Amino acid sequence: MNIIDGRKDKSNIAYINQKEIADKLCVSPTKVSQRLKQLIRYGSIRKIDSGVYKLLANDLWHTPYQTTHRVVLLYKSNPGLNYNEQAEVLKVTYNDIVRAWSYINMLNIR
Q: Matching SUPFAM superfamilies, A to Z (predicted)?
């Protein structure tokens, strides 16, 4: 997100392709593609064309951390729900729940 933010114009449009982003981050273009799809899904960016992205939000709330926050709140009120039930209640994917719990476990914030 920061790379797109650094390349945006006055209209919040950034012209940068996935290979450029991958080179800057020293990761594979596949990893960049996955992350961009995630940012699109969370409402951080919109893909306008190949190599053209509009920055919609540049904050943590428009990232997977939002789901993590929501999972923590849900867990506090309903600690007995399994991952599938949490996904259903929060209207996110099972993988989103797994990712959130890996953040939670890493931070040990239960």
A: Winged helix' DNA-binding domain
